[in-house]
Batch of 3 targets.
Target 1
Amino acid sequence: MQLTCLPSTSSLPGFQSSVAVFVFPVFVCVCCGTSTSSSCRIRGGVITWLPSSCSCPAEAATKFFGYGSRSSGDQSAPTGPTAATPHYPALPCFTSYLPVKPCTPSSRSSSSPAVIRHFGNILALSEERLQHGQSWLLTPLRPDVLTVTPWLAPIVWEGTFDPVLIDNIYKPLNLTIATTVFAVGKYTRFLRDFLETAEQHYMVGFKVHYYVFTDQPEQVPAVTLAPGRKLSITWVPKFNRWQEISLRRMEIIQTAIEERIRKEADYIYCLDVDMKFHNRWGPEVLDTLVAAIHPWFYQLDRKQFSYERRPASKAYVPVDQGDFYYMAAVFGGRIEDVHKLTKTCREHLEEDKNNNLEAVWQEESHLNQYLVYQKPTKLLSPEYLWDDLKGRKPNEIKLIRFSAIIKNKAEVRENA
């Protein structure tokens, strides 16, 4: 079976990895395990196929991969069996091992890929071993805490994932993570610590685009950013009440997504500025719709959650409903899913305002109401959103990764 060359890579947004990747998984022979050159390399955004032939019938490959449809960005069609190409998923997600026959050590040279993974329509062959210690079905990694929700969304805790494995899975995808932060009024004082600690711990080794929304652009500190990371500043007005920026945040994020972020990033995470990173906060958080469990409520019955309880409000949650109480200091996910969230919350906020209502915790109340009925696909444990006011961490919190700093709220919240 002969691999054919791909004359154009315009449909692939900027692969920069040295990891070998099959981006057109049809008629690619990975079944026989005898040909180490049936692969491609991507360096500097250029795909080079290393063609070879084997005696395997075409059905051996197509039964695993099938045909995809043509990528819209590719203007030149390859010939031969790879002419039909799959849609490039905007937000690829690790799904499973491919059901292919593995190469044996004797049939594979030291330079051949070690492990095969499938990301939507992208088949990634890592030159590093994506392996870790054996997992035992009857030995839970964290028996002291809940690690999966009733709707099968994972809850991320220290000890539930292998950071090296996670990094090696996501780095070949060359993702950009948009990160929004609001620094209005006296909250500009928190920007330096936020950005400097983010550069030490937040998505290290990945492309990050910080979007800073502020009424004082001149107060944004000059912080050295790692290669592939950048910062944009957007002016926003200063409001009469501190609650107003909370009320307007969903609208501003929605508009930013529509005007530029959806064209510039793959994922978006919306974070509070009066926070500091302390430990790794990496791609283990990536998923479709992600929420962080509030550090002050995770041990309480839902009847004690600080939901909006007035039925007249669009943020209303009945006393017998709700799963977890989420903090609005951290939420994120795929661009379009976060856009849907922010758009819905903005509409609900506006409807409440028209009815002379303001939810008890402004946009956080509307965020929680949304997530009661639109379940997050991944939850972050309180490790990922702590509060320094809680003092000494309890036993279940093995590592504090990101926390709200202690401050005089009455002083920094002007016109409170």
Target 2
Amino acid sequence: MSVSQEKLPGALKPPNSPLEYLIGWICILPNEYYEAIKMFDERYDTTHIVRGRGDKNSYDVGRIGNHLVVMNCPACGTSGQIRATKIASDMKSTFPAIRFVFLVGIGGASPFRRDVRLGDVVLGAKVLPYMQGRQTDHGFQITGREGVPPPILQTAITRLGAQLRQGLNLQKAIEMTSPNAIERPETDNLYKASYIHELGARAVSR
């Protein structure tokens, strides 16, 4: 029995059919996966999963809010466009009713005019295919064609923006968050947006 098929302690009975899962969440790096699984409100036992032909992914399944979500567990030492494309294709062979697949990554702080820092969530309204752009010393250059998400997702982004403009219910958020759930470092290294990191060099505050 593989790790992905072991029964989770206290796991709930899963939905009866893979057709009930409509959302896919792809993790490419283990560090992304470690944080992503914390988003589940409920996690289900995976022993019921019958994989599609050729699907070698390992999955976590559960509920986030009102949505049933499938999340892959990434293998160590793999990354890149080919890997992500294969994960998405195999995921849909096992869970054929999936409507949307999200690739969720973790980025570092990026101090700029609109200060983006660790812990912020960035939603993109457009999609730039992998290897269709490049970062240079003079800025980001687009070498391919931008893709646009389905209208239903664009509408969802608009609704999220409306909620932010109306103001968040901070008191409710505080009540739902355990004081011990978040650990912050005592010190943090911040860099100017124009700072160029040398590959393999040790990070130094600038």
Target 3
Amino acid sequence: MAIPSMREMLEAGVHFGHKASRWNPKMAPFIFTQRDKIHIFDLAQTVEMLEKACNFLEKIAKEGKTILFVGTKKQASSIIKREAERCGMPYISERWLGGMLTNFKTIRARIKYFKELESRDLENLTKKEKARLLTEKNKLRQIFEGIKDLNDLPDALFVVDIIREETAVREANRLKIPVVALVDSNNSPNLVDYIIPGNDDAIGSIKIIAQSVTNAIIEGGGGKAKKIEEVKQESEEKKIVSKPIKETKEKVKKVSKVAEATEVSKIENKKEAKKTEIKEKKIRNRKNLKRLKKNQK
């Protein structure tokens, strides 16, 4: 199992903690130094503890157990979703619903309803009812999309930012579900079973740690592993599906612009014709006046 080197972690920004004024003293054993009032992690310990966490995840993946990925903050959301999909594990990347673990029976009922809603044909409904159900489906998708195939409680959690995901961590603790987490210098490691000390705010740091965790699970043969290329291909396919709609809209816009230009051209031609007609009338009137004057003489 390949664990990133200290140099790779350094380049990803894993070593940066929070300002010293915001630190949690319980993280002192993992701090190497302080630079410009910012704590710097001891990356030798980070490498060691990441390896320990990955060994644990690889072991339980070999046993066919489930690891739930949790990370709802902006920097972590897309990474958590992608890496969980890559190793075929469930994930929560948008919002943690209170009771997700401790009230799993109710959550499972909601997941069942969401699945029914997804497969339901909405074409024969009224516009109002259809709009209401689509709104509800989109809201439920945000919460349950990553766990719709989760039939039982997970056997472990991988968490990014234990302060933001405190509810998830406490629920796991209550049910004695092991927690593996990326823990920053402002966090308390007390609620975490497998601590990975490091920066939980930088995208590069979250990415390198999450990828290591995913690789360990894949090596353990857990979930329905997908290659990064397959995950990318799926997202590309989704883009391709929406592309014809965009192209159609562009064509409609172009056609409407051409029609608009033609209409403007017609109006301008009419205006020019009107002006020419008025000029010709004026010329005719002048000629008629001259003739009248000559006749009077």
